[in-house]
From TrEMBL:
Gene Ontology cellular component list: cytosol
Keywords of the record: Endonuclease, Hydrolase, Nuclease
Keyword Nuclease appears in the UniProt entry: yes
Pfam families: HNH
Domain HNH nuclease: 21-77
Protein name, as recorded: Putative HNH nuclease YajD
Amino acid sequence: MTEYKSKEQKKKFYNSKSWKELRLLALDRDNRECQECKRQGKFNHGQNVHHIKEIYFYPELALDLDNLETVCINCHNIEHKRTFAHINPNKSTKKIWQDERW
């Protein structure tokens, strides 16, 4: 079974024809709407296709349409903990970025 542990393995997978075709099927199935926003009663266009069960841990589900959902960039970043709140959870997110330097 193929593994998706290294950066190179993931890059090869996400550049594959199989993934690109399946990604389009997921987007069409979900009407290009973010499914997480939809669960919260909001509407947002989704451009990312998210693996519900990550391919790192479940490589057998990498090309399973039932394991995919369309999400917006914000929801995708929250799911993968790529937000300001996750950079330094002990500090207020309001003061992380300060452009002024004297």
